[in-house]
User: Which sequence fits this backbone?
């Protein structure tokens, strides 16, 4: 998927956790093989060319496409799996894959799991007694700095996802035009229980721009957001402060 993944696991029976870790890593590699739009022979590339049907693909393909359809519905089309008229589920795959890896390890008995995929993080449980997971949010305008620190205190699961132009340039597409989104934002960070959705909502809100993106994020249950504009203005949803610390 063109990025670095890291896994931080606490507690559990060592042999069971190690086996689950191996399965999680193998699963991430399998996701890249199936969903990569850069591999000509991946199932998604062949599906986009009409060489395969969804039914002929791995079951995960249908699962991801169903989730993407729900994301498109909730975002009123601001999230899309179409890029230049071609199927491209990249916007949902990474978050879904990271969340799935985290849940696989937690199911093996780990008391705390954190999986980071290119800066998007899913945490489950806790890293220790009385200690919450804490996730730093990079400052898009000050390399090496932090815009905020999100604490998972009181939550059994929490995800933090960021979409923006600071590191990868103008890669978010406006689905209405098929071209790079014209927006006053440089980054949107979304906090939600599940990374599958946090990743989608960050992308959609970034494409919307600060005013519409903030309004839309406020309308979603259990979702908070931090939006940074090119003019160094920070806008937050009403409940975000409860997750900072």
Assistant:
């Amino acid at each position: 998927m063109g990025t670095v993944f890291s896994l931080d696991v606490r507690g559990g029976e060592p042999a069971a956790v190690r086996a689950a870790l191996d399965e999680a890593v193998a699963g991430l590699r399998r996701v890249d093989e199936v969903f990569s739009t850069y591999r000509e022979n991946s199932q998604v590339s062949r599906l986009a060319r009409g060489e395969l049907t969804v039914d002929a693909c791995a079951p995960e393909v249908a699962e991801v496409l169903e989730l993407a359809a729900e994301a498109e519905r909730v975002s009123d089309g601001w999230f899309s799996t179409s890029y230049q008229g071609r199927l491209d589920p990249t916007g949902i795959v990474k978050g879904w894959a990271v969340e799935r890896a985290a849940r696989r390890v937690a199911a093996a008995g780990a008391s705390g799991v954190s999986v980071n995929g290119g800066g998007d993080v899913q945490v489950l449980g806790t890293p220790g007694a009385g200690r919450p997971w804490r996730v730093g949010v990079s400052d898009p305008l000050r390399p090496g700095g932090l815009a905020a620190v999100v604490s998972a205190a009181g939550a059994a699961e929490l995800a933090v996802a960021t979409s923006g132009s600071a590191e990868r340039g103008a890669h978010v597409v406006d689905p209405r035009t098929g071209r790079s989104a014209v927006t006053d934002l440089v980054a949107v960070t979304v906090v939600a229980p599940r990374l599958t959705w946090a990743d989608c909502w960050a992308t959609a809100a970034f494409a919307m721009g600060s005013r519409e993106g903030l309004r839309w994020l406020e309308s979603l249950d259990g979702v908070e957001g931090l939006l940074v504009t090119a003019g160094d203005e920070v806008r937050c949803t009403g409940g975000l402060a409860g997750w900072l610390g």
About this structure: Residues 14-35 form the longest helix (22 residues). The longest strand covers residues 157-164. The two ends are 31 Å apart (CA to CA). The mean pLDDT is 93.
